[in-house]
Amino acid sequence: MVSRKIKLLIPKERGEIIPIVFVLALITIYVTFELYVILPAIYNNIFTYKEVCHLIFGLYIIYNLVGNLFICMATDTSIDTIICPVLLPPPTVTTTNTQQDMIFQYCNWHYCYQCEVNVPPRSQHCHLCKKCILKRDHHCSFLGRCIGFRNIRYYMCFLIWTWIGLFYCNILHVDYTYELVGTFSWRVIVACLFPFGAWLFRLLDHFSLFLSFICSTSIVLSLYILFLIIQQIYLIINGQTWHEYGKNIQIYSNQKNLQANLEIIFGKRWFFILFSPLISSPLIGDGMSFDIKMTETADARYFQTKRI
Ligand SMILES: [Zn+2]
Ligand SMILES: [Zn+2]
C-alpha cells in the first residue's frame, strides 16, 4: 500500500515532471526569499517574539501546503481499485430526447474503449493520465494529475493554503517595501507595476528587479489561485464537477443544503480538514452511485429522484 502510494507520487512522464518541478521550485524560492530576505529585513533580531510567531505560522502553512500537495498526488483516484462488472449494468438514467445522448452516456455505467472495461457513472477517461478517473473533475496541469472523487479534498486544501501563503507573503512584502524605501513615491509605484521597464531605464538595480519580480508574481498568483478557489466553491454549491459544468449536466445538482454538498466532497469531518492533511475524513459513498434529481423539461419528465 505504501509502496503503491510512493509509486503514484513519483512523476513518470514529461507532462508530470515539468509542472511539479515548477511548483516545487516556486515554493522553495518563496520560502527561501521570505526566510532570508524579507523577515530579517523587517525584524533585525531573529529571536524577537514577533519573528518567532511569523516562523511558526510560516512553517504551519508550508506543512499544510506541501502535505496536501503530496497526498493529492499519492492518492489513487483511478478506477483501478474497484471491481468493474463484466456485463454492462442496465441504464438507470433514461432519456427521451436525442440531445440528451451525452447525459445518457455519461451518467450511466458505460464502456471505456481505451481501458476496455465498464466504468461507473461520472467516471471519465483522461488521455493525459491514460486511465479512467472516478468522478473526474479535471486534469490539473500544475500537479500533472487528475482531480477526482478521492483527492479533491487535498486539492482544495492545497489551493486554500497556497492562497493563504501568498496572501501572507504579500503582507510581508508591503512591510518590507515600506521598510526599504520609507515612503511610496512615483519611482516605487512604477517599479512595482513595471519592474522590467524600470530596470531598463535604470530606476532599479538587478537585486531590486528580482525583488519586484517576486513581489509582483506573488500578487498575480494569489489572484489566480483565488479565482480557482471561487470556481471550485461554485461547483461544490451546485454539486457539479468541472466537466459537468462545461457540458451543462445538472442532474446531480441536488437541492440539498451546502453542508450536505460539503460532506459529499470533503467527507464526514469536512470542518476539520483544513487544519491538517493527516486528519481523517471518511468520504460518503463509493464514487460509483450518486443521488440524482428529477428534471422536468418541455419534452418529458425523464429523471426520477433515485439512487443509481
Ligand atoms: Zn478509460
Ligand atoms: Zn488526468
UniProtKB/TrEMBL annotation:
Keyword tags:
Acyltransferase, Membrane, Transferase, Transmembrane, Transmembrane helix
How the protein sits in the membrane?
A: Multi-pass membrane protein
**Top EC class for this record:** transferase
Pfam families for this protein: DHHC
What does the record give as the reaction this protein catalyses? L-cysteinyl-[protein] + hexadecanoyl-CoA = S-hexadecanoyl-L-cysteinyl-[protein] + CoA
Which terms in the GO cellular component ontology are assigned? membrane
> Molecular function terms in GO for this entry?
protein-cysteine S-palmitoyltransferase activity
Bilayer-crossing residues are 20-43, 55-74, 154-174, 180-201, 208-230
Q: Does the keyword Transmembrane helix apply?
A: yes
Q: What Enzyme Commission number(s) does the record list for this chain?
A: 2.3.1.225
| Family named by the database record | Belongs to the DHHC palmitoyltransferase family.
Q: What is known of its domains?
A: The DHHC domain is required for palmitoyltransferase activity.
Q: What is this protein called?
A: Palmitoyltransferase
Q: Which organism is it from?
A: Rotaria sordida
